[in-house]
Amino acid sequence: MYKVYGSVTSRAFRVLWMLEEIGEPYDYIKAGPRSEAVTALNPSGKIPVLTDGNVVITDSTAILTYLADKHRKLTFPAGTIERAHQDALTHAILDELDAVLWTAARHGFVLPEEHRVPDVKPSLKWEFARNLDRLADRMAGPFLQGEQMTIADIIATHCLNWAIGAKFPVENEKMNAYAKAMRSRDAFKRVRGLDDA
Questions:
Q1: 3-state secondary structure 166-189
Q2: In sequence order, which ranges of 10-150 are alpha helices (DSSP H)?
């Protein structure tokens, strides 16, 4: 059985949501970054960590891709044009949304105080809004690529939720409606309630 190490308030949410969507059983081990349980599996101490038997996989996107390919769900087949578009979309979201939010987090509380540049946040908010508008223009249907949900939707929705928590305005109406629909999914709600269980 899969084991997921991390927390619902971290990128581990993506992995937990994926597993709920595809109906695969897992154990959720609530663990913070650099905790003993995590560093025993990932020397960097970063979460999430997925174990599949004796195999350890790190990085949320790598984990999502592994699960999607292994179970042939929430992905287009490797070697297809649709998969190339999916991969391009996934990398765009990581570069243009996730990286912007992570930069804000680093300069807000992650880096040692003497290395933080708080004045960068307004620029990051502007960049995030611009990039979100571009993503909305690429959206092809109820999901980012049209009628089929993929791992890109999980990452994008997670970034939209992260933006709210980081006080990044999400003013694009199309993306707000998209995020609301994604949050209404049963699998999403089940993950939200994990820490209450």
A1: CCCCCCCHHHHHHHHHHHCCHHHH
A2: 12-22, 36-39, 60-71, 81-93, 99-105, 121-138
> Hey, what CATH topology would domain 81-185 get?
Glutathione S-transferase Yfyf (Class Pi); Chain A, domain 2 (1.20.1050)
Specify the CATH number of the domain 2-74.
3.40.30.10
pLDDT tens, residue by residue, 77-133: 999 999 999 999 999 999 999 999 999 999 999 999 999 999 999 999 999 999 999
Two tokens at 144? 């980012």
pTM to 2 decimal places: 0.96
- AA letter at 23: G
- Could you give the residue range(s) of every CATH 1.20.1050.10 domain in the chain? 81-185
- Tally of CA atoms within 13 A in the half-sphere of 186 that contains its CB: 4
Could you give the residue range(s) of every CATH 3.40.30.10 domain in the chain? 2-74
Contact between 157 and 183 under an 8 Å Cβ cutoff? The reply is yes
**Taking a C-beta distance cutoff of 8 angstroms, is the pair 97, 135 a contact?**
yes
The tokens describing 169, both together, are 């305005």
137 touches 131 (CB < 8 A):
no
Instruction: Copy the structure tokens of residue 189.
Output: 């709600």
- Name the one residue in this structure whose structure tokens are 């508008």: 133
CA separation (Å) from 180 to 46, 116, 145? 29, 33, 17
